[in-house]
Amino acid sequence: MGSTASGKTELARTLCAELPLDLVSVDSAMVYRGMNIGTAKPDAAFLRQCPHRLIDICDPAEAYSAGRFLVDANREIEQIHNAGRIPLLVGGTMLYFRALQQGLASLPAADPVIRAELDAEATRIGWPAMHETLAQVDPAAAARIKPQDGQRIQRALEVYRLSGQTLSYLQATAQSSVHARDWLKLALWPSNLEDQRVRIGNRFRAMLDAGFVDEVEMLKQRPDIHHGLPSMRAVGYRQIWEFLQGRCELAEAERRGVIATCQLAKRQRTWLRAEKHLFRMDTGRGAADSALHHLAGKIPRGH
Asked: 2 near 92, Cβ under 8 Å?
């Protein structure tokens, strides 16, 4: 586990070279085909050397969910175990990690009509006002969702309108079956947050140099893709989309993208603080040695 731009991919490469591990991606954006640059997806050469399961499994016009990930990841984990190897889950989508360990509430599927109605309301009155509406019906959910987090506000209100039950109630009373597994949890944790902010800024500029704008432009030209889709709400993509709409200059889109990525990293660290039995490693060259030392005796070397 680890926040964005912390070095998870490179560490995974080292561990897979030393231990009998098969990689499973835990990333809500890398599941989408055609979203390569903005997700920092490993390149083809890397993937040939170290294959990642659950990458490029979904079209950007689809809505991938934690529930779907749970089904997909459990299937891949079982296949890896059956082959006599050990799954290495790598990514920064903390909700997905939590779903694997604790299960998910049984929630109603997304409804395009309800979502369109909520989007229209939000366009008219704004997401902070929608947040006030949520606070009236589900105070517990509103307390943990920020007034600017339109995606989560929309989902909480959608669940209430579809089921008549609050999201908080359904999550609290969920009877999800969780596979009994032993977890070894490692996390890359930057000791210097300013260094991480610099890495995030450098990586975003490198994405732009690599053709990130062209990537989003190609997606934007598709008639079945719009800015409200979960894929296009991913950090970086929504800021470049705004630039392509003429709502800001490229430099401003870059600035917003870097800020949004830093905010994402902060949320990821908050999630990680709640993880129990977590072995933390500082980001940097010593992370691989630290990880291998921690795993010594727990996972046999060799393939």
From this structure: yes
Q: Which own/partner contact pairs does 92-95 have at CB distance under 8 Å and 24+ positions apart?
A: 92/1, 92/2, 92/3, 92/4, 92/6, 92/8, 92/26, 92/27, 92/268, 93/26, 93/27, 93/28, 93/69, 94/1, 94/267, 94/268, 94/271, 94/272, 95/28, 95/66, 95/271
Q: Which of 82, 90, 67 has the alpha carbon at shortest distance from 7?
A: 90
Q: What pLDDT, in 10s, does the model give residues 263-273?
A: 999 999 999 99
In contact, 210 and 302? CB cutoff 8 Å = no
Residue 30 within any structural domain of the chain: yes
Between residues 65 and 189, the one the model is more confident about: 189
Expressed as residue numbers, the domain containing 227 is 8-104+176-295
Q: Can you give the pTM of this predicted structure?
A: 0.79
Instruction: Tell me the two tokens of residue 161.
Output: 């309108």
Find the DSSP H helices in the chain: 8-18, 44-49, 66-82, 94-102, 112-125, 127-137, 139-144, 150-163, 167-172, 193-209, 212-220, 237-244, 250-273, 287-295
Q: Kindly report the CA angle at 164 between 162 and 169, in degrees rounded to 5?
A: 110
Residues 122, 64, 272, 191: what is their CA dihedral angle, to the nearest 10 degrees? -90
Asked whether residue 84 falls in the same domain as residue 225, the answer is: yes
In terms of Cα–Cα distance, which of 50, 37, 70, 53 is closest to 10?
A: 50
Verify that 126 and 275 share a domain, yes or no: no
Domain membership flag for residue 1: no
Contact between 10 and 203 (Cβ < 8 Å)? no
- Residue where a domain terminates, one of 151, 172, 193: 172
The DSSP 8-state label assigned to residue 42 in this structure reads: -
Same-domain check for residues 78 and 161: no
Q: Grade residue 172 by pLDDT with cuts at 50, 70 and 90.
A: confident
- Whose CA is closest to 92, among 292, 268, 274? 268
For residue 302, being part of any structural domain is answered with no
Residue appearing with tokens 């929608």:
130
